[in-house]
Every structure is written in structure tokens, then in C-alpha cells.
Design brief:
Layout: E1 27-29, E2 39-41, E3 46-48, H1 54-74, H2 87-108, E4 132-135, E5 140-142, E6 146-151, E7 154-161, E8 166-167, E9 173-175, E10 180-182, E11 187-189, E12 194-196, H3 201-233, H4 237-242, H5 245-274, H6 278-287, H7 297-305, E13 319-321, H8 324-338, H9 360-371, H10 373-380, H11 395-402
Antiparallel strand pairs: 1-13, 2-3, 4-5, 6-7, 7-8, 9-10, 11-12
Helix pairs in contact: 1-2, 1-3, 1-5, 2-3, 3-5, 8-9
């Protein structure tokens, strides 16, 4: 007596966005198998850091004071200037705010310059052949941790990244927050929820620079409004300030904010003029090394703002073979959903065939056998399966157990 072999498990959809992304096709979109700590939106079209939620706080800190300014200051100045020029105050602040938000999203929602990981470590033949053999038992050569390359006549050290299994290109560093190697790594900014690197540094500078101008704009017109009150009512400046508490709050807020965004603007203007990143600035200051990338002020600014942004090296929406770790876990979920008796020790017998409580390693081997049972049956003559999927029985053993 033999149990009928159950049907193969239904394909498990890993991302729910259509055919071709499941185990049945052995293909999955790159962003579904991404090993970094990034968050993806719109099915891989936008990539953010793991702290993406902080961007909502940043947006609030920008939009809220502009809304207060528009309602309590700019609106009151609409008719205070000839030829309706007061309307330009409101229009400019709205357009400027939209520009700040666009540069914020361009900074935080794009690939900053992530270097794709290697699937396997590089071989010795791929490099200069130098290696150390520290494991006498296995005699496995170890790649050197640091190598030197020549950049514009200056020796630059590059390090091997154990996580990404590659030698980082010059100016590349591994972000501990996003867990990626990023080209021309500057820093990880928690306010935008993203690394700042080769492909978004331009937009980051435009963001902090335009935010600085927005603070100065709001700050200045708050004082203009206070002066208009003082002149129209012929009162002291202090009494005029009391009459518009919203202006006082905005003056204090923008004064504090401009120290942050304005300070960043000045600092990064200096970095651009010397062709450094924030990371390199601190490193060179400590090591007292010569900067091999400095081309002069004009050429440095041209490199940042006038050169073409290189395309991303990652195709997040491309379909790739399903990684083994995802494939194993998906198959395990499929089998367990069909047979809830796995990992359990039943107290009864099903169809006269005993049920076994498999060990962890045996269960892992069984799942592989279940997935390829048809080929294994032809190759090794395996017999039928019990309905609980807990063990593959040879035909002779099954007959003895049933008897």
C-alpha cells in the first residue's frame, strides 16, 4: 500500500508584482534580493537609506515655516507695494520651496553611486598575485588588505571590503548605515536618509544652498514686515514686533536654521573648491597627505556641476536568478504550508506508515529532495512519499512498514 505522491508546491511570489518574479521562474528583481539596508519604493524605481522616515521630518521643517510665512507675513505684504509687486513675494517663496523639496528628493531617492557587490571573492589571478598563506591546514591564500594605486602621480591606498568582496575604487568607502560601498563617498546624511556620493552630491549641495537662501529670504521679509508696521503706525520697533508674533518666531527659527544649512553650504563650497569629500577632508587632515584630485578651483567646480552624472551600476528592476538563500527559504515556506506536520512529532500513524521527527539537517536535505523528487526518483530509484512529507521511503521499506 502506497500513498499517492502530492503535487509540486505552487510557485511562491516574492514581490507580488507579476509573473516572472517567483520561485517557479527562478527569477527575481534585483531590488527584491538586495543585500544592503536600503528601502525601495515604486517597485525599485526609488532607493532610500534605512532611515528614510527622517525625510518626513525634514519636509515638515521646511514646509511648516513657509506656510506660516505665507499666511501671516507675505499675505499682509500683497498690497503694500505698488503695481501689485507684493504678489511676487508670495510667488517666489512658494516656487523656491518647491525647488528645495525637489532637490531634497533628488538627493535622497536615487542611487548615490553604489558599487555592486561581488558574488564571490576575487581570485589571486585577478590582481598582482601577492597573497599571504596563513591557514596552514587548508593552505588558502588570503588577499592583501590594502593595495596601492597611482592617481595623478600620487600613491593612493585602496582597501579590500569583506562585505562587498571587492577592492574599493579610489574615493570609495563603505557606509555602515546603508551597508554598501559608495563611490566618492562623502557622508551619510540622516536628514535626507541617504548616503551622499558620486551620483547625488550635486543635488545635495543644491539642496543645502537653496535651503540657506530660503532661510535668508524668510528672515529678511519678516524684518520688512515689522518695519512696515513701525512706519505705518509710527510706533517703536519693539511695539511693532509685539504686533506680529509670527514674524518674531520665524526670525528666531530662520536665524538658528541658517547656522546649520548655511554652515554646511560654506563648508561644502570649500570642499568643492579643493575637490575633497567630507570623508577625505578628515582623513587627509589626519594623515597629512597630498590631495591628488585637486585640479584648481574652476576645474573642480566644473567637475561637480557641469560634468555628466554617470549612470547607475545597479539595475534594480532587472530580473536575476533567485539567490540560493532566498530560494531555500521560499521552498521551505512552500513545503511547510502544504505539510504542517513538519517540525512536529505526531502521536498517531497515517495510513500505517510511521511519521518521523526529522533533525534539522535531515529536513534541509529533504526539502532539496522534495524539490527535485522527479529527477532523484529516476536517478536513485526512490519510492513513494508519505502524505505528511516528513520522509522519503524506499519501496521495500514502505512495504515492510505497512505490513
Amino acid at each position: 500500500m502506497y500513498a499517492v505522491q502530492p503535487p509540486a508546491p505552487a510557485p511562491v511570489n516574492l514581490n507580488g508584482d507579476g509573473a516572472g518574479d517567483n520561485v517557479g521562474s527562478s527569477l527575481v528583481r534585483t531590488y527584491r534580493a538586495w543585500k544592503g539596508n536600503n528601502e525601495f519604493f515604486l517597485r525599485g524605481r526609488f532607493i532610500f537609506g534605512p532611515d528614510v522616515k527622517s525625510i518626513f521630518l525634514t519636509i515638515f521643517l521646511i514646509v511648516a515655516p513657509v506656510a506660516v510665512f505665507s499666511a501671516f507675513v507675505a499675505r499682509k505684504l500683497l498690497d503694500d507695494f505698488p503695481h501689485h509687486s507684493g504678489y511676487s513675494i508670495l510667488i517666489i517663496v512658494i516656487v523656491h520651496t518647491i525647488f528645495v523639496l525637489i532637490t531634497l528628493l533628488l538627493t535622497s531617492g536615487r542611487d548615490p553611486g553604489i558599487v555592486p557587490r561581488n558574488t564571490y571573492p576575487p581570485t589571486i589571478d585577478d590582481h598582482d598575485g601577492s597573497a599571504d598563506i596563513n591557514d596552514e591546514q587548508n593552505a588558502r591564500p588570503h588577499l592583501p588588505r590594502i593595495k596601492e594605486v597611482i592617481v595623478n602621480g600620487v600613491s593612493v591606498k585602496i582597501k579590500y571590503c569583506d562585505t562587498c568582496m571587492l577592492y574599493r575604487p579610489p574615493r570609495c568607502s563603505h557606509c555602515s548605515v546603508c551597508d554598501n560601498c559608495v563611490e566618492r563617498f562623502d557622508h551619510h546624511c540622516p536628514w535626507v536618509g541617504q548616503c551622499i556620493g558620486l551620483r547625488n552630491y550635486r543635488f545635495y549641495y543644491m539642496f543645502v544652498f537653496s535651503a540657506t537662501l530660503l532661510c535668508l529670504y524668510v528672515h529678511g521679509f519678516c524684518w520688512v514686515y515689522i518695519k512696515r508696521i513701525k512706519d505705518s503706525e509710527e510706533i517703536s520697533i519693539w511695539k511693532a514686533m509685539i504686533k506680529t508674533p509670527a514674524s518674531i518666531a520665524l526670525i528666531i527659527y530662520t536665524f538658528v536654521s541658517v547656522w546649520f544649512v548655511g554652515g554646511l553650504t560654506v563648508f561644502h563650497t570649500y570642499l568643492i573648491s579643493t575637490n575633497q569629500s567630507t570623508y577625505e577632508n578628515f582623513r587627509y587632515r589626519y594623515d597629512r597627505q597630498v590631495n591628488p584630485y585637486n585640479k584648481g578651483v574652476a576645474a573642480n567646480f566644473k567637475e561637480i556641476f557641469c560634468s555628466a552624472i554617470p549612470p547607475s551600476k545597479n539595475k534594480f528592476r532587472a530580473k536575476i536568478p533567485l539567490p540560493k538563500e532566498l530560494s531555500d527559504s521560499s521552498r521551505r515556506r512552500a513545503v511547510e504550508s502544504m505539510s504542517p506536520t513538519i517540525r512536529k512529532t505526531p502521536s498517531n500513524l497515517e495510513l500505517g506508515i510511521p511519521v518521523y521527527n526529522e533533525a534539522e539537517e535531515e529536513e534541509s536535505e529533504y526539502i532539496d529532495e522534495f524539490t527535485n523528487d522527479e529527477e532523484l526518483g529516476k536517478a536513485s530509484g526512490l519510492g513513494a512519499m508519505s502524505l505528511n512529507l516528513s520522509r522519503v521511503l524506499h519501496r521495500g521499506e514502505g512495504e515492510r512498514q505497512v505490513a
